[in-house]
Amino acid sequence: MKIAVMGSGGWGTALAMVLLENGHDVTLWSYTQEESAVLREKRENPMLKGVPLPEKLHLTWDAGCVRDCGIVVLATPSFAVRTTARSIAPLLDPGAVLVSVSKGIEKDTSLTLTAAIAEEVGEGHPIVALSGPSHAEEVGRQVPTVVVSASRDRAAAEQVQDLFMNERFRVYASDDVVGVELGAALKNVIALCAGICDGMGFGDNTKAALMTRGLTEIARLGVAMGGRRETFAGLSGVGDLIVTCTSMHSRNRRCGILIGQGTPTRQAVQEIGAVVEGYYAAATAKALAEKAQVEMPITEAAYQVLYQGKDPHAVIHELMTRDRKHELEDSWV
Ligand SMILES: NC(=O)c1ccc[n+]([C@@H]2O[C@H](COP(=O)([O-])OP(=O)(O)OC[C@H]3O[C@@H](n4cnc5c(N)ncnc54)[C@H](O)[C@@H]3O)[C@@H](O)[C@H]2O)c1
What is its main location (predicted)? Predict the structure, then answer.
């Protein structure tokens, strides 16, 4: 199958390697000519060190590479997903399947990324979200990894499952696109918070509490927006939350650590040097929660630290001294 991967960051490159290994004819598209030239010259991506790029991987910065492709993978940061989809829309083959592998919510519209893509490419192109606990660095090293392929279109979800699946990269299928995409986007906010707590010197208790209560509020919003509660207990929910909150590969967590150690937010985001999706997702999640009238205290606290410069110590104190609650919303009814 001829496949284009749009976005040559760490994730696009790692997925291009999985597809190449599975015998597909893969082109990796870079946003700039310079980025593509570096890849061509070094045959290695600075965002994915130690993974040689074979000659049979085509490298380009010409968006025309999507022509004749049955599958087009969109692997840019979330802020660039719509513009990238718009630029390739007139070039797509009829029926080409689009696969969104970015994790975020569109800032201006609060749409999921597959919804933003659908607006740009119109009818006739099935759209799939591929997500789960998966660091590019580990997929690049062929560490066993398991993700989920979600689409309202069962045939497309299963086609993407088959295309990516191999003995080191297992893919489940799901029809809950909203649940999968929201889990992926919102856990980045919790990972930033986990990093902040690590940076402040808190321990495992705090992080476990943050992850558990974080997942509760993610699921609360996800269900209000049409996702299935069980999805948040799956790979793209708790699975991705665990990997992002506990690993040093997670740039969201690393950014949080810097903030917890006292680095101003903007400087911390810049120091990471790659997209910190949780920073953007905190603002959109807060807006979505307000719109859906859903309580998300941790996300709200993250917003206050990231956008209003509030001291994390004060925020933690406020979270810890909220009114007493029942753990399960429906207990003793
Ligand atoms: N890195 C991972 O382990 C991983 C895993 C799963 C999902 N993701 C998601 O994949 C997406 C991309 O992450 P990444 O790690 O590859 O990012 P990255 O920071 O490594 O690379 C970002 C890429 O986007 C390109 N880009 C920047 N501005 C652009 C624009 N305006 N239009 C088009 N392209 C532009 C850059 O040139 C660069 O190639 C993110 O949403 C991320 O959350 C990443």
Answer: cytoplasm
Across the chain, which has 333 residues, the per-10-residue mean pLDDT values are: 98 98 98 98 96 98 98 97 98 97 93 97 96 97 98 98 98 98 97 97 96 97 97 98 94 97 96 93 95 96 97 97 88 66
Tokens of 222: 């996800």
Ligand 1 midpoint to CA 76 (Å):
4
CA of 19 from ligand 1 middle (Å) equals: 18
Token pair recorded at residue 78: 């979330």
Q: Which residues contact 220 (CB under 8 A, 6 or more apart)?
A: 294, 295, 296
DSSP string, 30-62: -SSHHHHHHHHHHSSBTTBTT----TTSEEES-
Determine the topology of domain 2-175 in CATH: Rossmann fold (3.40.50)
Handedness of CA 121, 123, 129, 130 (dihedral sign): negative
C-beta of 104 in contact with ligand 1 (< 6 A):
yes
CATH number for 178-320: choose from 1.20.120.1760, 1.10.10.10, 1.10.1040.10, 3.10.180.10: 1.10.1040.10
Q: Is 286 a known active-site residue?
A: no
